[in-house]
Amino acid sequence: MWIQRELTLQARPRGFHLVTRELEQGVPELAELRVGMALLFIRHTSASLTLNENASSDVRRDFGSWFDQAVPEDAPYWTHSLEGPDDMPAHIRASLTDSSLVLPVRDGRLALGTWQGVYLCEHRDSGGPRRLVVTAVGEPARPS
Amino acid sequence: MWIQRELTLQARPRGFHLVTRELEQGVPELAELRVGMALLFIRHTSASLTLNENASSDVRRDFGSWFDQAVPEDAPYWTHSLEGPDDMPAHIRASLTDSSLVLPVRDGRLALGTWQGVYLCEHRDSGGPRRLVVTAVGEPARPS
Amino acid sequence: MWIQRELTLQARPRGFHLVTRELEQGVPELAELRVGMALLFIRHTSASLTLNENASSDVRRDFGSWFDQAVPEDAPYWTHSLEGPDDMPAHIRASLTDSSLVLPVRDGRLALGTWQGVYLCEHRDSGGPRRLVVTAVGEPARPS
User: pTM of the prediction?
Assistant: First the structure.
């Protein structure tokens, strides 16, 4: 049983945002899978996905601080600066995290750990809405 | 044909540990797949997975040195310090490597390159046992 | 419907190279899938894959500059130096990007965003040809 849906996440400010619930609600057909895999795929190169701690907003803020320092806007070696100072760091930060995230499905839900959540990593100052393709496959709960 | 198993890796010290054989032995049903995909998924946010060189233990030690320097414990910008100085660096290091790793299956085995092995990346000083969900799907060696 | 093919990418100089078209042409059977997933897997630990901007070659050059600075060849803490100064940085850089990349398939094509392309990240000075295993699964365009 195959599921494929295009989802749009509303525009968010630069930073790391918890979107687990929004993604699960956007693909209600996951509930029909007893066991399977779900591929979350973001169709952009200056925003990305990652899995991390779903409780403290501190953690998401500290993600921002680390990436700001490790991939700085004002590095002397950037040559691709046409689209603004936040563009080239956004591309690097996207590749350090994930464009595609494959998650296990069990009993109709993403089988995440207790403290795991999906982050939308918005690396641009004004990235706008972000489009995802969610593709899932699995064994239905009841033989179809 | 779908396979799904929860595995527990015993507690290991902080560092990078080769666990390929342990994972393969934990999912003996892989032997029944002629062609397929296996999703290794770790249900934590301060330990992670990656693929890298399976021969020299030097390589795994140097991984530790690089991550200690690139994501330092004493960075002045950490605000999430409640769970100890190794916690916030562990979250960042987990997102720089992988929570989920999808590997090809061929003739009943993970189709890794000669020098590739799966690393458990333990980012905490005392992380304890780590739980994984392994989900695999494929075409059986003989029609079932 | 399962597809599995081994592909060889010709030797390329150290750097980030766009290989989307070459990979798609190497797996013409993708055209038969209405919906599915494709796993691109590189069987090496000093070259890797990532998704990023497919237009400006500036972006790919700046990737090289960032990785050269963030994972330097002359770091004092490397102990694994037997295979040359570019080897240990190559291993770290490979783990910061991806050995395996799962992409959605829709209507017989990789469902990438307009600006997304697959990069071969060649981290060695003379890495030679690189081998990939491409595994895809999906629902055929017409019932088989």
Answer: 0.97
